Amino acid sequence: MINLILCGGCGTRLWPVSRTLMPKQFAKLFDGSSLFQGTVVTNSVACESQYVISNAEQYFLAKDQLSELPECGHDPRFMLEPVGRNTAPAIALACLSLDPNAVVLVSPSDHVIRKKEAYLKALEKAEKFAEEGSLVTFGITPTSPETGYGYIEADGENVKRFVEKPNLEKAKEYLQSGNFYWNSGIFCFKVSTFLSELEKYAPDMFIACKAALANAKKENQLLRVNYEDMMAIPANSIDYAVMEKSKKVKVVPSDIGWSDLGSFDALYGEYPHDEAGNNVNPKHIPVGTTNSLVIGQQRMVATIDLDKMLVVDTPDALLVAPLASSQKVKSVVEKLKFKKSPLTDVPQTVSRPWGTYSVLDDNERYKIKRIVVKPGKRLSLQKHLHRSEHWVVVSGTATCTVGEKIFYVRPNESTYIPVGEVHRLQNDGKLPLVIVEVQVGEYTGEDDIIRIQDDFRRS
Where do the MannoseP isomerase/GMP-like beta-helix domain residues begin and end (predicted)? Predict the structure, then answer.
């Protein structure tokens, strides 16, 4: 069985922990591990390989996190989407590039599954149904009348209908009936079965996906889809395009300790708590505080006489709200987007294929960064039209290209790059290179980069 891992999402529901460039599946929320890593580890027990569907910005982030999981022992395939067109095209493009007889397990990368043994038993049952020619969905046994989930009505293992997110009254009815399940967004089927049903019920999408795959760039384990071809594919979810129309759908009822972590309220339930009901956090000093979620890993956060509150402290944004109102975070994100704030997109520390950079200060006409370059990696050969740069090496040895000169800069030494000068930063050593970069100019945005040569094929 092949695990198709969907890595879409724009990181709005858990803002400011998650951002567009650091969506929740990659944020290390649990003991230094991410939801993406948890998905890989859990499914690697039942699947012989992974096929990660991501966008170009998240590709190297996913590769880095996979490198931290040597126990999984797989070299996964990747498909990079230049723009998202929802789940049906993503799954279709991946399936079109696989053996028609292969069985795939489609799983979101940002869900939690606590009951691993029950999950593996559900997978065995689903794989059997898939081999017999069914499209399988996993129905989560509901524990409360949730209005934030879609529902599946079933007659035994046969799906009668899919239901949109209900109001509270309807959700209570569904819970009492005993034949409704939460729609998990996890699927299992044979490649040929899915593609046949897609061609039957969404022919325009099927044709557009075949055309896009024919033009896609194939590089070993990497598939890159062209922007124009991706935009030509009708956008739709797998539920609307296929699952709600097909007559071959079966459901595997699943009590697997599942959560989609769609809010901080849901996240609160996943953490261990102290005797007062607060999540355990060594950076939190509670005084009279109870039943609260306090997230922050850098500054010490003190709270006094709070109950059922949410406090999320990040280096560049602070969120405070009643825990029960955490679903309204998306309204904050909408307001920030209206103001064109970078806070919705960029976390303080940004991952790049060569390492990371952290913005330490950002003001009019200057920006200060901490840059970490991995051993054996280098930034693109580039120039800037609106800023000069000053590099100060903190640790390691930098191989610097400035114009026609190539030279070394060691700890407590520095170099200067004038506006418009071609330059490159490189780490030829065996330890991480750490520098402080001071940018000065009329504009210091990340789009003021003209790449001349790049090891990672970025434009």
Answer: 283-336
284 and 359 share one domain: no
Considering the chain, what is the average pLDDT of its residues? 94
Widest CA span of the chain, in angstroms? 75
Asked if 36 and 7 touch (Cβ cutoff 8 Å), the reply is yes
Domain end, chosen from 259, 287, 317, is at 259
Q: Which two tokens stand for residue 155?
A: 């007659």
216 class by beta-carbon count within 10 Å (0-12 exposed, 13-18 middle, 19+ buried): buried
Is 401 a domain residue?
A: yes
> In angstroms, rounded to a whole number, what is the distance separating the alpha carbons of residues 369 and 104?
43
> Domain range spanning residue 236?
2-259
Q: Let me know: does 243 contact 87? Beta carbons within 8 Å.
A: no
Q: Quick one: pLDDT at residue 56?
A: 81
Counting Cα atoms < 13 Å in the Cβ hemisphere of 184 gives 30
Contact 53, 7 (CB under 8 A): yes
Mean pLDDT to the nearest integer, 216-222 = 90
pTM score: 0.88
Domain of 414, CATH number, reads 2.60.120.10
Place of tokens 């040895």: 397
Would you state the torsion angle of the CA atoms of residues 178, 183, 188, 193, taken in this order, to the nearest 10 degrees? 100
| Domain stop point among 212, 229, 259 | 259
282 pLDDT more than 90: yes
Burial category of 368 from C-beta neighbours within 10 Å (exposed 0-12, middle 13-18, buried 19 and up): middle
Residue 269 lies in a domain: yes
pLDDT bucket at 443, cuts 50 / 70 / 90: very high
**Residue the block writes with tokens 């001071």:** 438
Beta bridge partners of 400: 407, 425
Tell me how far apart the alpha carbons of residues 289 and 56 are, in angstroms, rounded to a whole number.
42
Task: Tell me how far apart the terminal alpha carbons of the chain are, to the nearest angstrom.
Answer: 35
pLDDT band at residue 74 under the 50/70/90 scheme? low
